[in-house]
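User: Here's a chain of 310 residues. Predict its fold as tokens.
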Amino acid sequence: MKRLRALAIATLGVNVGVILLGALVRATGSGAGCGSSWPSCNGTLVPELEGATAIEFTHRAASGIALLMVAALVVLVLRRSERGHPARLGAGVSGITIVIEALIGAVIVLAEWVADDASVARVISVPIHLVSTFILLAALVLTVFWLDGGGRLRFRERPRLARPWWAVSAGMLAIGATGAVTALADTLFPKESFAVGAMFAPAASEHFLTQLRIFHPLVAVAVGLAAAGWAATRAWGAPGRAGRAARIVVALVGVEIALGIANVFLLTPTWLSLLHLATADGLWIAWVWLGAELFGQRRGAATGGGAETG
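Assistant: Prediction complete.
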């Protein structure tokens, strides 16, 4: 299982890279770099790599590699694990979600919801796209956990611990969705200066996208603090990997809030936006891993620490 686990970790890393490349495509307005053709790029398999075409083609190529890696992971897990092994579920969900990801990306390209398009359809598709990637990451994280000897997740045995974990998980998906909308607004309607009043009371004449900007920081701070508080009070003192995951969650929440504030004051430079997104991905991965350690305990692991056992 060690080689399968290594493949699952590598697949997780590649998919995080694909997410960041997708954000770079959006931030640079390169979504139309391959025209409206898919899966080819401007009607060819390998176009001339320059400008927007190079950025979009790199993203597509990385997405293709990620798809092949997930496919290989699914096949190998099915071949090398016994029937009923939980890793089969993780790999299967990963396979389904990455296909959904590819289809969403194809629709966005073919419908030309790219570059300077500010339609309602694009505003709806972008957060759906990002939330589906978070579900993909979660499935890959759980696949790694199960290949590493983790047990099945038993939420019903610890309902008082499970309910807030699920609530914060849903909140993190909301952070991703609102963040995707805000990032799109920042790309299409960049701010020329920072003004607190404009954030909380945008002019009625502004595009509706800019009026949605305020939701992301409010949701992010509220859910982030809830995640840090839950991790600190419920799992900070837990032994082994659960405790480490809890401390990572608390640390990344602090870093993420600081990066968010800097992003607003510096008017969302591309490099900082990518760092902000990478940290968000890391926080989501740590959060899912924390849940896996708490609800899918390994054999012989003690509950310990501050984790509630009821």
